[in-house]
Amino acid sequence: MRITADRERCASAGMCALTAPGVFDQDDEDGRVVVLNGEPVGGDAADAVDLCPSGALSAADG
Amino acid sequence: MGALSPPTVLGAAVTSLETAAAEDLPDGMPYHRETRHDPPAALLALQDQPLRRMRYYPDGAEGWLVTGHAAARAVLSDPRFIVGERFVRSPTELPHFFVSSSEHVPPGFFFFYDPPDHTRLRRKVTGVFTLNRMRALSARIADIVDERVAALRDAGSGADLVREFALPVPSLVICEMLGVPYADRDDFQRTSNDIFDQSLPVAKRNEASMELFGYVHGLVPAKRAAPGDDLLSTLAADADLTDDEVGGIGMILLLGGHETTANMFGLGTLALLEHPGQLARLRAEPGLMEGAVEELLRYLTVAHAGMMRIVKEDAEIDGRLLRAGEYVTVAPHAVNRDPSRFDRPDELDLGRDAQGHMAFGHGVHQCVGQQLARVEMRIGFAKLLEAFPGLRLAVPPEEVPLRTDMFIYGVDSLPVAW
Ligand code: HEM
Ligand code: HEM
Ligand code: SF4
After folding, report:
1. What average pLDDT does range A38-57 have in this prediction?
2. Dihedral of the CA atoms B405, B409, B413, B418 (nearest 10)?
3. What is the mean pLDDT of residues B282-292?
4. Quick one: CATH architecture of A2-60?
5. Given A18, A47, A53, which is nearest B362 (Cβ)?
6. Chain B contacts of A29, Cβ < 8 Å?
7. In this complex, do B126 and A27 lie within 8 Å of one another by their Cβ atoms?
8. Is pLDDT at B98 greater than 70 in this prediction?
9. Which of B120, B251, B260, B335 to mutate to test the pocket of ligand 2 (most atoms within 8 A of CB)?
10. Set of chain A residues whose Cβ sits within 8 Å of the Cβ of B128
């Protein structure tokens, strides 16, 4: 799975970092998403993409 | 905002009357509860249509009610549904909480803004509420919880858990983060209670709003002159923000930061005591706590007044056409009991995966303080249960006073013994 994050849309809710901690983090300045691992395996990252309230995250196969 | 001019939505409301005959149109969102923990039965009965038309108070204009999880997600994540217009109607017959206007919502009170202004203001504070910052704050939160556990014990068996524990814990935490003197808490707890009390006359609630805004606003010059290590000082030093905006941001955090979490503590403790099997399970397996907090958030959904939006441009959701100017209310307590999203939704099951609940909302307004609230609840419930192995109600459950008419649901007091 390949993850992309749109930091302009991000609402800094932290759902991604809560759900898939090794994949996402939040920056120190205004809490926006930082992708730690852009090609994760496992369901947590997919859950995080689904839970993101602002639609900032997307996942593509491969 | 005394002078309410006729809303711009009448045209839309009139054209939609044609569809009214075909449907049985509910008069507003039901709020009368039959049980302490469940949403109103009349509301759950409306779940057969996840998105339906409903009449709004006070003029009976037609709008929409959302009770389904998928439809709620669709509405709350769609920029065609906005908050930054005048709300001149309410989803319930209670005095309108939602009546608001750009004239009286203070600058900076970003809940009533839409992007891009909402984004600009919200990002001034989000850096302070990240998961990492909350982890760093855990030790301090644990100290505060310990102090309140001791205070509850000192108050003796029969003490009110709301007064000794549920209210002070989140108040102390948010005061410290903002740099607001906790000694002033009596004032702002009373004012914030008045703002959220739907049974008070609107004028009284406005007075309370003005008072709270004035209070926070009044702290700003001192914060700028002698900055401390707190959020109000950081905001006061931000050249991009006016004093009014700092006051509004401070007010929204003070309001959001204590009523909600306090009611989760009060009502959550009641729910645990009324589900002894679940409570025993949690005591036996402390590792369940993270999931248990999510399940309590889902099951109790204290923000029960509904999340209101106005349709900015015609939008099709679930095959239905929502017209510009119409009102939409998402009933999060119904959404969190949607059987198509949660198995056996009316059961409190602390072991379930409650992920995806909407107790904190969804979309760009999803709760700013949610990671703080999670940490407070995990630590707070864990220490409370640990300190009082024999915790029980000191009155029959039916005598616990409920906050049915309040913007945030919960209990007014909770006498406990141990
Ligand atoms: C949670 C936020 C708030 C809610 C739900 C709220 C709700 C209301 C309601 C229901 C009204 C009455 C409208 C009417 O007259 O029919 C009102 C008016 C008013 N509000 Fe608020 N309010 C909020 C925040 C504020 C704040 C922060 C301020 C002050 C800085 C404020 C100042 C006023 C004033 C001055 C009026 C009356 C204006 C007039 O009499 O013409 N409100 N508000
Ligand atoms: C268990 C506790 C809490 C619950 C259930 C809760 C619930 C909610 C909900 C449902 C919303 C979205 C409203 C909507 O979209 O119409 C919201 C927004 C908000 N909450 Fe919370 N909240 C809690 C704790 C907190 C705390 C601790 C803070 C502050 C420190 C806070 C500050 C805010 C703010 C500032 C907003 C407005 C966000 C925006 O408009 O962008 N909340 N909350
Ligand atoms: S869940 Fe979405 S909105 Fe929240 S921090 Fe992550 S990317 Fe941003």
Report:
1. 94
2. 150
3. 97
4. 2-Layer Sandwich (3.30)
5. A53
6. 127
7. no
8. no
9. B260
10. 31
Per-position DSSP letters for B346-375, written without gaps between them: TS--TTS--TT--TT--STTS-TTHHHHHH
Q: Kindly identify the ligand whose nearest atom is closest to the C-alpha of A52.
A: 3
Nearest-angstrom CA–CA distance, B374 and B294: 8
Nearest chain B Cα distance for residue A3, angstroms: 20
pLDDT band at B103 (very low <50, low <70, confident <90, very high): low
Give CA–CA dist B23/B13, Å, rounded.
Answer: 15
Please check whether residue A40 touches B, CB under 8 A: no
User: Ligand 2 pocket, B269 CB below 6 A?
Assistant: no
pTM given for the model: 0.89
Q: Torsions phi, psi of B236, nearest 5?
A: -65, -30
At residue B206, the pLDDT reads 74
How many angstroms does the Cα of residue B367 sit away from the middle of ligand 2?
Answer: 4
Its ipTM equals 0.92
What's the pLDDT score for residue B11?
37
Structure tokens at B173: 């935490």
Per-domain residue ranges for chain A?
2-60
The yes-or-no verdict on residue B222 having pLDDT over 70 is yes
Q: What is the pLDDT of residue B8?
A: 36
